[in-house]
Specification:
Strand content: 15-25%
Number of strands: 15
Order of helices and strands: HEEEEHHHHHEEEEEEHEEEHHEEHHH
Structural class: alpha+beta
């Protein structure tokens, strides 16, 4: 309510038929409390309440400044910063045990944001815990456009991601507005789109997006897992065989699978390279036991591994068998 009062005081607007609350999974988001037709204005945030900058480093510097002021409640952004203080942190900030589970997995550059910050923003902000917190908020909450760059948009940035959003964001001289692009029913969650790519979204925001999912395993291998969670649609040239696919995903197999070497390459009558994927379920259950009492970030990292493993298995099963594995059955 304090945030809404500040928005209204500065000339902004929040529709009375939406609210902030947690979904069934405990994730905070925006929800409709009444039926709202398409093309309805939901929120307008005036430019005076938007934290932005001439470049990303400058925006983070401003955000850090407001966080420092917020400790003494001298910032007009205090209600906003108090709302987003407990947002989901991106994986690069997670404990070591969680980050270890993501090593050697796509998109491979989980540390890109902190590396960029340390290399590019040395002259813009001190490297302390407040700067680290400002960077984490910027990575996880900022919203961008081609013409306006990335900014911190109070209230609007509480909308969660879905590959099929039901709102759009518009910019004008008065500020930034969120409008519906489809009818909302009371109880519907309000979704925007954070971008494209399941692995990339997980790297930046720390969640596994709901189906459908888009996986880019390598520059030459990309596919969608459709909403039925069984159908694969290839976005790149389809590998010629399962063997070709497995060869191209060797690094991921080393991380996700327990390899069993035999003299003839066969385990219980099944070629070892295929048997690796049949063993994924056993490895996943073992990993869950290992991390039963670990921090929640470990569970999220394991969920990502599970989804990636399932996607790879589906992709492999969709491909023709090579001559040497013609009679092999894949367990799904």
């Amino acid at each position: 309510s304090k945030l809404i009062k500040v928005i209204a005081t500065l000339g902004g607007y929040v529709h009375t038929g939406i609210e902030i609350k947690e979904d069934v999974g405990g994730l905070r988001g925006l929800f409709a409390t009444e039926n709202i037709p398409s093309a309805t204005r939901l929120v307008t945030i005036p430019w005076s309440l938007i934290i932005t900058g001439s470049n990303p480093c400058d925006c983070i510097k401003r955000l850090r400044h407001e966080i420092t002021l917020n400790s003494s409640s001298d910032s007009i952004y205090a209600p906003y910063l108090n709302v987003i203080r407990h947002v989901e942190a991106p994986p690069y900030t997670w404990p070591h045990d969680a980050r270890r589970l993501l090593e050697n997995l796509p998109p491979y550059d989980f540390a890109r944001h902190s590396q960029w910050f340390y290399q590019e923003c040395l002259n813009y902000a001190e490297h302390d815990r407040t700067s680290d917190f400002a960077l984490a908020l910027y990575v996880s909450r900022s919203i961008g456009s081609p013409d306006h760059g990335f900014s911190m948009l109070p209230y609007i940035d509480l909308a969660n991601h879905h590959s099929t959003p039901n709102i759009r964001i518009a910019y004008d001289d008065q500020g930034v507005t969120m409008l519906t692009i489809s009818d909302l029913q009371s109880g519907d969650q309000i979704y925007t789109s954070y971008g494209f790519g399941t692995a990339e979204l997980f790297r930046d925001y720390g969640f596994v997006e709901p189906l459908p999912q888009y996986w880019r395993i390598s520059p030459d291998i990309a596919f969608q897992v459709l909403a039925d969670n069984t159908t694969i649609v290839w976005d790149t040239t389809i590998p010629s065989s399962r063997q070709a696919f497995l060869d191209a995903t060797a690094d991921i197999r080393k991380e996700l699978l327990i390899e069993e070497d035999t003299d003839d390459g066969v385990v219980n009558g099944v070629p070892a390279i295929i048997n690796f994927f049949n063993k994924i379920g056993h490895r996943q259950r073992r990993d869950h036991r290992l991390h039963k009492n670990s921090p929640p970030e470990v569970t999220k990292a394991q969920q990502y591994r599970d989804n990636l493993s399932h996607a790879i298995r589906l992709a492999m099963a969709s491909l023709p068998l090579s001559p040497l594995t013609r009679d092999v059955t894949i367990e799904l």
